Amino acid sequence: MEELTTLYIDKESHKFSAAHYTIFSATERERLHGHNYSVSAKIVAPMGYNGFSADYNVYKNRLAALCDALDEYTLLAGESPYQEVVESGACYCVRYDGQEILFLQSDTQVLPIRNATVEEFSRYLLGKLLDESAGDDLREVELCVASGPGQKGCTHWHSD
Questions:
Q1: Residue 26 CB partners (closer than 8 Å, separation 6+)
Q2: N or C: the chain end with fewer CB closer than 10 Å?
């Protein structure tokens, strides 16, 4: 019988600060605001012959790099059915509910997500982590993004 071990990574340093707005409908959205997000992960892998299942440092470094890549940006939902994001000179022009909102491209990331929510950020970051972990012998990964104490969204993957 295979012996599996679960690693929990929830470091205070795994965080990013970003601006966003959540879109509720074709005519209602939040105002632009920011959060100090924190990222944590649960990793399930087989126990190795040497007494450990996965190198904590590898995954801590991967999570830190994912957080660094989003830190101090405005994050836009590039796949929202309610808004259109187009390049306009040095800016992104967001068309939403008859309005145009400009964001400097150098300060903004357009992510392949449907909405700028912790649920979508967790799905996006989990996909990035799994891409970087291709070839690792992982059975399950859960990645969570919190926008504050007691409020987080998590996405779960398993190898089946």
A1: 82, 97
A2: N
| Separation CA 10–CA 49 (nearest Å) | 26
pLDDT digits (tens, 9 = 90+) for 116-150: 999 999 999 999 999 999 999 999 999 999 999 99
Let me know: does 58 contact 151? Beta carbons within 8 Å: no
| Residue-wise pLDDT tens digits, 37-78 | 999 999 999 998 888 888 889 999 999 999 999 999 999 999
CA–CA dist 84, 108 (Å, integer): 15
Q: Which residue has the tokens 């707005």?
A: 21
Structural tokens at position 110: 């357009």
Q: What are phi and psi of 83, to 5 degrees?
A: -140, 160
Give pTM, 2 decimals.
Answer: 0.94
DSSP state of 23: B
Counting beta carbons within 10 angstroms of the beta carbon of residue 136, is it exposed (0 to 12), middle (13 to 18) or buried (19 or more)?
middle
Q: What is the rounded distance in angstroms from the CA atom of residue 124 to the CA atom of residue 116?
A: 10
Instruction: Give the span between the Cα atoms of 72 and 41, in whole angstroms.
Output: 22
d(CA 140, CA 160): 9
